[in-house]
TrEMBL record:
It comes from the Bacteria. InterPro entries: BacA/B. This is Cell shape determination protein CcmA. Residues 1-35 are annotated as: Disordered. Belongs to the bactofilin family. Transmembrane segments: none annotated.
Length: 162
C-alpha cells in the first residue's frame, strides 16, 4: 500500500447502464492519464498539505490543503474526498470536493459528484444528479491560474534536475 502509484491499474467499468460510447470515452481518458505518468492517491491514502504537479493526478483517497498545476489534470474518483482550493487546467469530479476550483479549460461534474465551493472555468459540464453549492463563473475566454509560488517552484524544480 504505497502513497502514490505511477500510471493506472486496470480500468474497472461495471456499470451496465453506460453506453458503449461512454465506456470508450472513459477508457480513453484512463489510458491518456496513464500515458501522462499520472500520480495516483489510492483509496487508503490521506494527505494534508500542498500538492504541485504538472501532468495528471487521480485521487480516490482523502486530501486536504491546496492543489496547484498549470498544465495538469485532476481526477477525483468516486471514493475521492478533497478539501482544497484547486487551480488546474482540467478537472473531472466524481466524488466529493469542498473548496474553490479554478480551471483554465474544462471542469466536468459527474453524476454523483458533490462540489461545495466556487467554480471558475472556460467550459463546464454538469451531469444530472450532481450536488453543487457555490458560485459559478463560466467564461469562454478562460481564467488564468496565476500563482507566483507555483511558477517559482517550477523554476526551482527545473534547476534542480539540470
Amino acid at each position: 500500500m504505497g502513497l502514490f502509484r505511477k500510471g493506472t491499474e486496470e480500468t474497472k467499468i461495471n456499470d451496465e447502464t453506460k453506453s458503449d460510447s461512454e465506456i470508450k470515452r472513459e477508457l480513453r481518458k484512463e489510458s491518456k492519464m496513464g500515458e501522462e505518468k499520472a500520480a495516483y492517491l489510492t483509496q487508503d491514502v490521506e494527505i494534508k498539505g500542498t500538492i504541485k504537479f504538472s501532468n495528471a493526478m487521480k485521487i480516490d483517497g482523502k486530501f486536504e490543503g491546496e492543489m496547484l498545476t498549470e498544465e495538469g489534470e485532476l481526477f477525483v474518483g468516486k471514493t475521492g474526498s478533497v478539501k482544497a482550493n484547486v487551480k488546474v487546467k482540467n478537472a473531472v469530479i466524481e466524488g466529493r470536493m469542498d473548496g474553490n476550483v479554478t480551471a483554465t479549460e474544462k471542469v466536468e461534474l459527474k453524476e454523483k459528484a458533490h462540489l461545495v465551493g466556487d467554480l471558475k472555468a472556460r467550459t463546464l459540464v454538469i451531469e444530472e444528479g450532481v450536488v453543487f453549492v457555490g458560485n459559478c463563473n463560466v467564461n469562454p475566454d478562460g481564467f488564468k491560474t496565476e500563482n507566483t509560488n507555483f511558477k517559482e517552484w517550477k523554476k526551482e524544480t527545473k534547476k534542480g534536475t539540470e
